[in-house]
Amino acid sequence: MTINATHDPSLKSWVASANDADTDFPIQNLPHGVFSRPGEAPRGGVAIGDQILDMAAAVAAGLFDADLEGIANAAAASTLNGLMASDPAALSALRTRLQALLTLGATEQDAVTRCLVAAADAQMHLPAAIGAFTDYMTSAPHIAAARHDRPEGKLPPCFWSLPIAYNSRASSVVASDHVVERPLGQSGSDAGAVFGPTRAMDYELEFACFIGRGNALGRPIRLADARDHIFGYCLLNDWSARDVQRWESVLGPFQAKAFRTTISPWVVTAEALAPFREPMPARPADAPQPPPHLTNATHDADGGLAIRFRAELRTAAMRARGEAPAVLSDTCFANGSWSFEQMVAHHAIGGCNLQTGDLVSSGTLSGVALSSAGCLAEITAGRFPVALPDGDKRLWLEDGDELTLRGRAERVGFTPIGFGACRGVVSPAVDFQP
Amino acid sequence: MTINATHDPSLKSWVASANDADTDFPIQNLPHGVFSRPGEAPRGGVAIGDQILDMAAAVAAGLFDADLEGIANAAAASTLNGLMASDPAALSALRTRLQALLTLGATEQDAVTRCLVAAADAQMHLPAAIGAFTDYMTSAPHIAAARHDRPEGKLPPCFWSLPIAYNSRASSVVASDHVVERPLGQSGSDAGAVFGPTRAMDYELEFACFIGRGNALGRPIRLADARDHIFGYCLLNDWSARDVQRWESVLGPFQAKAFRTTISPWVVTAEALAPFREPMPARPADAPQPPPHLTNATHDADGGLAIRFRAELRTAAMRARGEAPAVLSDTCFANGSWSFEQMVAHHAIGGCNLQTGDLVSSGTLSGVALSSAGCLAEITAGRFPVALPDGDKRLWLEDGDELTLRGRAERVGFTPIGFGACRGVVSPAVDFQP
Q: Does residue B142 have an active-site annotation?
C-alpha cells in the first residue's frame, strides 16, 4: 500500500463540511460503513464530512461504470463482508472513483448530491458480520507500568517474542451508540462468591482491524503477506467488569468482557491510512528482537501507524449541563509493541484460518504516563479516584456515564483523518430473578 | 424433556444394523448430521444403524405431511442451524415421524429404503455454521488431580462457584476424519523463544452441546430455562500443543488450541438423551454449593448425563497391522462438576448473547484415576511414557497417530445410544518459509 494521488492534501470536496479542519472524514479518508434512517433497511455508505454517500443510491444513479459496479454493490450491501473480501486493486479503483465523484468541480455533483444522507439523520450499524473477535495485549505499559499497586512492573516472559492474545466474544460486539447495560456477574474472594451488577465497570481504549481476505485452514500467513489480509481499521472499547475478571480469570477473561464491546462504525481503509505508516517503535535495549518469522526490514520500517487516541468521559450531570467531556486517556498506537501485520501472522502461524470480517484488536493502548493509560484499572486501580472538572470523581464508570473513544491519524504534509466516535452510555443492570 | 414412547427399548427398526447391540445409532437415537457422497452437495441426514436417511430425498418422496415439511426441510439443509433454532415441540414431532418411518413394520419401508445412503459411502461435514466455540473446564481432576508433578492438587478459588471457561476458536472446528496437521508454533523458556512444529501434541476428551435457540443481547438466561436452549450433543477433541500453551498462556490458551478442533459429526438430540439424565454428581464435603442462580432442586436432580467416553489410539504401525486401538482414556460425564444448563446460564449471565449453532464444551473430562485422565498432559506429563500393547510408547502424539473419541449413554432398562467416531490422524507440519 503506497501513498498515491488519492492522498494529495490539496484535494477539496464540494461537500463543504469535508473541508473543515477538524472533520474526521475529509475527501482523503472515505471510510465505509452501514447505516439506515428510521424505517429503512441498513445499507452501505461512505462518510464524507457530515454526510453519508448512500452507495445503493449511487449505484442506482449509474455513477459507477460496469467494471466498478460489482465492488460498488458490495459497498452498498447491509454487511460489508463482500467488500472486505475484495481484491485490493478493485478497492483502490473504487476509492479513486469515489474521490473523483466528491472532489470540488466534479461534473457529477448534482447526481451525487441526491445520493447524500445527513449523518445526523442516520443510525449506524455493525459494518460486517463478525465471525471472530481476537483481542491482543500489545502495550507493555498496560501490563507492567510501575503504577499504584504494581511497582515491580513485570512483563510475561513471552511478551517480546510473540503478541499475547485471547479469543474474545464476537456476538456481543455492537456499533457506537448501542446501549451498554451494566452486566450482572460473579466476583469473589476467600470469603466466597458474590453475585450482582458489577461494581467495577471499566472501558479499554483499543484499536482494531477488520480482516479482508482470509487464509485457508492449515496454511499460515507469512509476515510479508499479512498486510494484504487487512481491509481497514476502527476504534474499539473493550468494556470490562474488573471484579468479575479478577475472580473468573483462570483461562483468561470470559464473562468480564463478554457482555458488550463497542466499535466505531466507520471502517477506515488500509489505503486511507497509507500516509500515516511509520517505523515500528524501538524496543527496550534489554528486550529480545522478534523471532525471524515475525520481523523483516520492510515490515519494521513501516509496521507502525501515526495515530493518536483519546478516551473522553461525560457524566450524566456534565451532559445535562452541556459541558465538554473530560479526557481520561490520551495515547497513541506507538504505545503498542506489535503491528497488526505481526498480529495477523502470529494468529495464523499454527494454521488457524482467519476469515473475512474477523475483528483483531490491539488491546488497551496505554503509555507510560498516567495520562496515557487506556483504562480506569490503570488510572485509579479502584483506589485512587480520578477528579473530573466539576469536582466529581470516579474510581469506575457509573450508570449514566458516557464514554467516547476518538482517534486521529496525523502526519506533517498530509490531511489528518479520523475514525468518528466510538461511544456508549452505561445504563443500569437489567432486573434478574434467578 | 421427559422420557416418552420414542425411548421404548422394545422398538426395533427394519434397518437390520440398527438393531445390533453395539450400534451407536439404534432407532431410539436418530441423530442429525450433514453428509455428502463424492460429487454431491452436502445435505442433512439422520443416522440409523450403518445407514443415513437422506432427508432431502425423504422430503421429495413425500414422506412428511405439510405440518412437518418445514422442519424436515430444515433437517435436509446443508447446515442444520435452522433445525437447531426450531421449537422443541416441532423437533419432537419430527423425531416421532422419523421413528415411525424406520420402525419394523412401517408401511413406508420401500419408499424410505430408496432414501437410504450407506454411511460407509458418505463423507460427513460440520453439522452447523458454528458462530462461537466456548470451552469450559468442569473437571476438578483435570485441573487438580494429585499426579506426577502436581502433588499439591489445588483448584482455583472460583472453581466451585462458577464453571470456568474461555472463548476458543470456532473457524478451525472440523468434523471427524478431517486431517490434523501438526501445528507450527512458538515455545520458550528463560533461554528464549523457539519456533517450529509443536513437540508436545496432545488430545483432550471433551463433550459438547450445540446451542439451539439463542438469547437476546443483554438478556440473561435463567437456569430453569437453560435446557430449552440446548439442541443436542457431540464429542469434541480439543487438540492441544502443550509447549505452545505453556509459553503463550497469559490471557489463556490461544494458538495452542486454535489450529484444529475435531467434533463427531452426528448431533444426538437433547430428546434422545432424556432417559440418561441423572442427578448432578455430589460435591466434596468442603466445597461450597453453587450460588443461587446456578442451582435449584429440579436442575440438581437431573442435570447429569450417564455417558461414558473413551479415547483410543492407533499408531500408524498398529493400523498397518490391523490391530485394535489402545484405550488411553476411559471416563464419564460425571467427572465434570457442572452441567450444560449451568454452563449456558453462566455464559449468558452478563447479557452475552448465545446464538444458534454455538458450540459449548465441557472441557477435558478427567476422573481421579490415571486411566480416566482425558489427555496426555495428565497421563504422561511429558515425562512418564504410556506403554502401548505392541511395546511402543508415547509421551505425546506422533505423526501418523490416529486418535478417536467415542461415547455411549447407558442406563438399565433403556437401549444404549452413542455418538459415532470423533477421529483424526496427526499429519506432519506444513512446510513454512518465513
A: yes
Edge-first strand order for the sheet with B43-48 is B116-118, B51-54, B43-48, B32-36, B123-125
**Residue A239: closest CA among chain B residues belongs to which residue?**
B350
> What is the distance between the alpha carbons of residues B337 and B396, in angstroms, rounded to a whole number?
27
Q: Among A7, A142, A178, A299, which one carries the catalytic annotation?
A: A142
CA-only gyration radius of chain A, Å = 21
The residue extents of the domains of chain B are 5-125, 133-427
Contacts of A253 in chain B (CB under 8 A): 251-252
Cross-chain Cβ contact A352/B258 below 8 Å = yes
Q: Contact A53/A102 with Cβ under 8 angstroms?
A: yes
Which of chain B's residues have a Cβ under 8 Å away from the Cβ of A347? 255, 258
ipTM for the predicted complex: 0.96
Select from A164, A171, A255 the Cβ nearest to the Cβ of B250: A164
Nearest residue in chain A measured CA to CA from B356:
A171
Contacts of B138 in chain A (CB under 8 A): none
Q: Kind and range of the H or E element at B277?
A: strand B277-278
Q: Which has the closest alpha carbon to A307: A204, A419, A211, A165?
A: A419
> How far lies B89's CA from each of A263, B72, B96, B229, B344, in Å?
39, 13, 11, 13, 21
The residue type of B89 is A
CB atoms B254 and A167 under 8 Å: yes
Yes or no, beta carbons of A432 and B220 under 8 Å apart: yes
DSSP run (H or E) holding A374:
none
Instruction: Select from B161, B172, B217 the Cβ nearest to the Cβ of A352.
Output: B172
Return per-residue pLDDT of chain B as tens, 434 residues.
689 999 999 999 999 999 999 999 999 999 999 999 999 999 999 999 999 999 999 999 999 999 999 999 999 999 999 999 999 999 999 999 999 999 999 999 999 999 999 999 999 999 999 999 999 999 999 887 645 555 556 899 999 999 999 999 999 999 999 999 999 999 998 888 999 999 999 999 999 999 999 999 999 999 999 999 999 999 999 999 999 999 999 999 999 999 999 999 999 999 999 999 999 999 999 999 999 999 999 999 999 999 999 999 999 999 999 999 999 999 999 999 999 999 999 999 999 999 999 999 999 999 999 999 999 999 999 999 999 999 999 999 999 999 999 999 999 999 999 999 999 999 999 999 88
CB contact under 8 A, A352 and B181: no
Residues paired with A418 in a beta bridge: A408
Closest CA to A86 of A96, A78, A97, A75: A75
Chain A interface includes B350 (CB < 8 A): yes
What is the spatial distance between Cα B176 and Cα B404, in angstroms, rounded to a whole number? 9
Architecture per CATH, domain B5-125, reads as Roll (2.30)
User: Which candidate from B179, B250, B434 shows the least CB-CB separation from A156?
Assistant: B250
DSSP for B369-405, written as a single string: SGGG--SHHHHTTTTSPEEPTTS-EESS--TT-EEEE
Q: Do domains A5-125 and A133-427 have the same CATH topology?
A: no
Say which of B32, B142, B299, B346 is annotated catalytic: B142
CA-nearest of B109, B50, B122, B46 to B83 is B46
B21 within 8 A of B240, measured Cβ to Cβ: no
- Cell numbers given for A118: 445527513
CB atoms within 10 A of CB B292: 10
Distances (CA, A) of B130 to A170, A368, A374, B126, B256: 12, 40, 33, 9, 20
Instruction: Tell me if chain B has a CB within 8 Å of the CB of A175.
Output: no
Which CATH code is given to the segment(s) B133-427?
A: 3.90.850.10
**CB within 8 Å: B162 and A293:** no
Instruction: Give B109 to chain A, closest Cα distance, Å.
Output: 42
